[in-house]
Write a structure and sequence with these properties.
The chain contains 22 helices and no strands. By secondary structure, the protein is an all-alpha fold.
Length: 547
């Protein structure tokens, strides 16, 4: 009996020890990880593409549905608002239904709403369908990133994020070109119909290939065992905060910011809802409930800084993606398709460089890669400050390629740093918040570009127009030199003066674009010192990040 009583605890301790080892042993999928990566990248690429592909089709959408172009911009706003609300909530939803099921629901919703967008008979119905499409698409990018983080071992995570980077960085670059091509040669409705076969293929492959890791299944079991209690208050505050923010950024310049009562109202709603959301999420943590947004991640310095860096990456990427086509179309007379072709070579360069950066991220300190990326991006923006109204297509394409070479070195290392020291059960939270940072950064970059362009153009024009007076001999001599080209008499003088003023307006706009580029360069350069605040990752830190 004595022997039995001594052996029994020993057997239990061995069993417990074996269990703990099995828990610590990293889970790996039964299918080749690269097949999983290609499967989940498919739908995500289409979703990110949809955030920019419709931009060039707005005049066609407005004409086809009998609305103004200003009204048609709701097609973009509705998508961005729904997208921003779902992005941070994806991790919360996976604890109720599982990550694979949540991903498939998002793909299905995205596909069905894309079909409804293409069939929409009126603008209000199209805007409603775009809200559904944005809600479905908002869960795809963070879910894919979390799936990749769990599917690949930490030392190969950078290579996996290279494929993810192709979706979220390259897609916005080729979106306007593809959108312009489809719209010019077919019909704007095919922009949405294009998503349907991709979504069907993604659903089929995901159901066969993707699987949830054990910790996700355990979270779902625990949640369902305790009863599914959705945090409706948290969802409402989340929706008010990010929905109001996206509306504010997208419509601010159009309505002249705080001179508009509706913009002021949504700004107040955004701030108040944000404060209450922080309070509510911290309260949920204190009472032991699962918060929608895991604010404890910001206690980690590497995650907090990577969140800021991802915001700046989105700001620069989307800001310049809007700035360059607008510059070449409004000042150089390019068509929408040719404007897209200015961006396309950079997209191919990023596609080629992403795997290289993914390989380097496993060999080189991520902070050095980020530093090099921001240095290249800042240098490219400084070089862009040489733009003028006589610039060639080849030089514009070169400048964008130069810029893309810096962007390629940022996305993967920033994501890699964000996951260091994070528990495996928090992977979904990390992916949701980093994607939120990129999304909000892109909206801020677009709003900043639109606002500064208008205001700096007006400032330069006011400064330059003082010289356009009959008291200025240079102005009079220029009018005399030009009026011969416009005929004779008083009308010719007026035409010559109008021509000079038009040239002044173009020069003022050119100077405004250069100001924006200068601000972006300073903004990106200021990120380099932040890298010294990121703790040095210990050797093989990423290996223990998920334990």
């Amino acid at each position: 009996m004595a022997t039995t009583t001594l052996d029994l605890p020993s057997a239990k301790s061995k069993a417990h020890h074996a269990d703990s080892h099995s828990e610590e042993r990293p889970w790996r999928p039964s299918i080749n990880p690269w097949i999983v990566a290609m499967t989940v990248t498919l739908a995500t690429f289409m979703e990110v593409l949809d955030s920019s592909i419709a931009n060039v089709a707005l005049p066609h959408i407005a004409g086809g549905l009998g609305s103004t172009q200003d009204e048609a911009t709701w097609v973009l706003t509705a998508y961005l608002v729904a997208n921003a609300i779902i992005l941070p909530a994806g991790a919360y939803m996976t604890t109720f239904i599982g990550r694979k099921k949540f991903y498939m629901i998002c793909v299905a919703l995205f596909g069905v709403s894309s079909m409804l967008c293409g069939l929409a008979p009126s603008l209000p119905i199209l805007v409603f369908c775009r809200i559904l499409q944005g809600a479905g698409g908002g869960g795809l990018a963070p879910s894919e990133q979390a799936i990749l983080a769990d599917t690949f071992p930490p030392e190969k995570r950078g290579q996996a994020f290279a494929m993810y980077g192709l979706a979220v960085v390259v897609a916005p670059a080729i979106g306007p070109t593809l959108g312009g091509y489809i719209t010019d040669r077919f019909d704007w409705r095919w922009i949405f119909f294009l998503n349907i076969p991709i979504c069907l293929l993604s659903l089929f492959l995901t159901s066969r290939i993707v699987e949830d890791p054990p910790y996700v299944k355990k979270q779902v079991e625990e949640t369902q065992r305790g009863g599914m209690k959705l945090d409706f208050t948290g969802f409402a505050l989340l929706g008010l905060t990010f929905g109001s923010l996206e509306f504010l950024l997208d419509k601010g310049q159009e309505d002249d910011w705080f001179s508009s009562h509706i913009i002021t109202f949504f700004a107040i709603v955004c701030v108040v809802a944000f404060v209450f959301m922080i309070y509510w999420e911290l309260r949920q943590l204190r009472i032991g409930h699962r918060p929608i947004i895991n604010l404890t991640l910001f206690k980690r310095r590497n995650f907090a800084i990577s969140f800021l860096l991802m915001f700046v990456l989105g700001f620069a990427l989307y800001g310049t993606t809007v700035l360059i086509p607008q510059f070449v179309q409004t000042l150089l007379g390019y068509t929408a398709e040719l404007a897209g072709l200015v961006l396309s070579p950079a997209g191919f360069i990023m596609m080629a460089m992403m795997p290289v950066v993914g390989f380097l991220s496993g060999k080189v300190d991520a902070r050095k890669l980020i530093g090099f990326g921001f240095f290249m991006l800042t240098s490219a923006l400084i070089e862009m400050h040489t733009l003028n109204l006589g610039v060639s297509y080849g030089y514009l394409a070169f400048l964008r390629i130069f810029q893309a070479s810096g962007l390629a070195f940022l996305f993967i290392p920033i994501n890699t740093i964000a996951y260091i020291g994070v528990k495996q059960s928090e992977n979904n939270d990390v992916s949701g918040l980093t994607n939120l940072a990129r999304n909000v950064g892109g909206s801020c970059g677009t709003a900043f570009m639109a606002t500064m362009l208008l205001r700096r153009t007006a400032a330069h024009e006011n400064n330059m127009v003082r010289n356009l007076t009959t008291a200025n001999p240079a102005f009079n001599s220029q009018v005399d030199a030009l009026k011969g080209a416009f005929g004779k008499g008083f009308q010719a003088v007026h035409s010559a003066q109008a021509y000079i003023y038009n040239q002044l307006h173009r020069q003022a706009s050119m100077l405004a674009y250069l100001d924006i580029i200068q601000y972006l360069a300073v903004f990106c350069a200021c990120m380099i010192p932040l890298l010294f605040l990121i703790p040095r990752p210990p050797k093989h830190a990423s290996r223990s990040a998920g334990h």
